[in-house]
Amino acid sequence: MKTLGIDIGSRNTKIVIFDHDANQIAFRDWISTEVSAEDSVNKLLSHAEKQISLDEISSTCVTGYGRKLYKKADKIRSEISCHAKACHFLYPNTRTVIDIGGQDSKIIALNEDGSVNDFVMNDKCAAGTGRFLEMTAIKLECELSELSRLASMAENHIHLNSTCVVFAESEIIGLLASGHKVPDIARAINMSIARRIYTQMSSIELKEAVIFTGGVAQGTDLVNCLANLLKTQILVPFDPEITGALGAALYAL
Ligand SMILES: Nc1ncnc2c1ncn2[C@@H]1O[C@H](COP(=O)(O)OP(=O)(O)OP(=O)(O)O)[C@@H](O)[C@H]1O
Ligand SMILES: [Mg+2]
After folding, report:
1. What is the residue with the minimal CA distance to atom 3 of ligand 1?
2. Which of 10, 12, 33, 107 gets mutated to test ligand 1 (max ligand atoms within 8 A of its CB)?
3. Model pLDDT for residues 154-201, shown as the tens digit of each residue
């Protein structure tokens, strides 16, 4: 038996088809979220159809920022629930989940049995999110996927003063103009995001295991910056961006 999980994020739409007999993911994919949520999902399903039969899918659950825009799912769940569900499945000892996507950041505290105990969410400000990294990549004229490697080569400490993406953009331009190196600036951005998450976490009691999900978790340098600040080990799932869709696929059963 297979179920379909859909995560319609503010930036990317992800799907996971979970095979419950084999207890593993049968298919996963993502694309940029389009104006029509249904078009995004249909495109992903057409990719999936080339590899597996969609007739075997018994039920569907949708989550994410755009979840109410997709009307064909059997169930609908919050991102908080889905990230918690998937992390508990992947790491049964999960007690804290940090999810950073393109537009918001969420910290979720789990009970021992995997249920959600508490959460905090920042969806008001882009500074602690992927948007900040996207702006940085444009200003530093590199690929987003290159930022982490560049930051890991930093040699000098720079403290970024701006806590707002708009002001940070001007600050980056100023740093480049005054001769600061790209790796040092990339690290300063990661440290700035890590400090924001650290502050956001202050109302949640940090318990291990700590799992980092969402597209931003692909940036290993940021993961390391945050782990150092929190003085804890942080685990990142194999493909952190599809975690919410995996949780939805598990809920769909
Ligand atoms: N290699 C990378 N390193 C760091 N960040 C990345 C990388 N690739 C993508 N990202 C970030 O991940 C974001 C997408 O992540 P994700 O799919 O989790 O967001 P989303 O679910 O659409 O957003 P939200 O949860 O805020 O609605 C991109 O917008 C980008 O900022
Ligand atoms: Mg998301």
Report:
1. 219
2. 12
3. 999 999 988 788 889 999 999 999 999 999 999 999 999 999 999 999
Give the CATH number of domain 1-91+241-253. Answer: 3.30.420.40
E strands, 114-222, where?
116-122, 210-213
Q: Which residues contact 59 (CB under 8 A, 6 or more apart)?
A: 3, 4, 74, 75, 252, 253
* Paired tokens of 242: 């599809």
Ligand lying nearest the CA atom of residue 65: 1
Chain position carrying tokens 């992927």? 130
All CATH 3.30.420.40 domain ranges of the chain, comma separated, are 1-91+241-253, 93-236
User: Closest ligand 1 atom to the C-alpha of 104?
Assistant: 26
52: helix, strand or coil: coil
Query: Which of 216, 225, 243 has most ligand 1 atoms within 8 Å of CB, for mutation?
Result: 216
Q: Roughly how many angstroms between the first and final C-alpha of the chain, as a whole number?
A: 9
For 49-89, the pLDDT digits (tens) are 999 999 999 999 999 999 999 999 999 999 999 999 999 99
- What is the per-residue pLDDT across 118-162, written as a single tens digit (0 to 9) for each? 999 988 888 889 999 999 999 999 999 999 999 999 999 999 988
Could you give the CA distance from residue 129 to residue 101 in angstroms, rounded to a whole number? 6
User: What average pLDDT does range 221-238 have in this prediction?
Assistant: 97
